Amino acid sequence: MVSWLLGIVLAYFLLLLLVAYxxxxxxxxxxxxxxxxxxxWMLVAFGMIGTSLSGVTFISVPGTVGNYAGGSSPQAxxxxxxxxxxxxxxxxxxxxxxxxxxxxRLTSIYHYLRTRLGETxxxxxxxxxILSRTxxxxxxxxxxxxxxxxxxxxxxxxxxxxxxxxxxGMILLYTLEGGVKTIVWTDTLQTxxxxxxxxxxxxxxxxxxxxxxxxxxxxxxxxxxxxVLNTDVKSPAFFxxxxxxxxxxxxxxxxxxxxxxxxxxxxxxxxxxxxxxxTFSIVMVLVNGLFLLLGGLLYLYAFHNGGAYSDHILVMxxxxxxxxxxxxxxxxxxxxxxxxxxxxxxxxxxxxxSADGALTALTASFCIDLLGMQENTSLSEKQKKRTxxxxxxxxxxxxxxxxxxxRWINDKSxxxxxxxxxxxxxxxxxxxxxxxxxxxxxxxxxxxxxxVCLMSPLLSYILSRASASWAGGYKIGIELxxxxxxxxxxxxxxxxxxxxxx
Length: 502
Hints:
73% of the residues lie in helices and 3% in strands.
């Protein structure tokens, strides 16, 4: 069984290499960075689903449904509150940020900060993106590699580090030449397989449990899984905070993120790019809802096969099953071999988009924003390409080190880690762009911007730790990103002045 599954992984990778070969011929640095601004908006929209969902959604979101977060009832479908916020955020990206990026014809979106706030703000924004995307992408990648390791490769005696090196080597091979142009096509392929894995998984469980739609709903309701809104104001999962936080997470992690935006600005016109974003946002809401349904069905399947809660922890065959392990555990040990095969295909389809685009975007940002490659006329195209490839390889090494750190931490709810880290690392980006877009002020002390962007996350951390004791039990949750961005905005206001007219 294991050899068959590994054979499927190899065949899948060879297919990606074939796509990369076809799309990277006659490529240039412009091809790598923004796909020569000729990407098809429908392909971009579809492929972005896989990039945004990644292995976190594929594994961790279904696992949240039956998890208990310190309360007396499971989390159920409360994650959908965040998803509704995403929809609002995507509209802001489509109609506020994309027009700005197209008007300035940006290759790196952080060039806006140079135009508006100066060189120091520009470099600071790029550095915070590099930090944010590196941490977020490697956390997502770790989650999927860890599942493959536990359920497949440990039995063969393959060390975790070797697995990680091989997978990162695969990603390097098909992104090194074509960059964005290749990723637009490979992400489309991978999104297709991931969604097929999701849909087939839902159909299989419903069929196995002999349920009709009414029976599915009744079963979910009986176990308290149908709750969507959390009305406890003091809870980190309160619906107002979740929706607002979800909106700002999308604005920051999509609209202010070079990885996501480089695909959008690779589309020829603003109108097509906006169509891409609107289509993508609607499909994302539906797909996330389907993943939550899958999560509920997985718990029903577990209960049907002898699983039960013990102190709010799911136990199957005498062993506790953490939320992130539920889907892979059932798929590989309880479902039919055919479904196990489809799960692995879906899983690796979720694995690659979480890393290939990030690796390409980080390379692009480092080369353009920090090395100034596009503006350096003394370097030939060949020299620029050589430098870009070296940077690409260096980021792959950084990815390896970060994944090994996550392995050492070994937390079983990676989605919470990612949202927490996003609150700290994307907050300064949110504050910088908000200050530039919504004020007309200029910076009196531009060199103080890095200090402001470092102090804001620090103050946010102190507030998050002390909020329960300072505010009568109120706990800061997903709104941490907003608080961090607001502190950055206020800090920039303090070191700025009204724009003087000549």
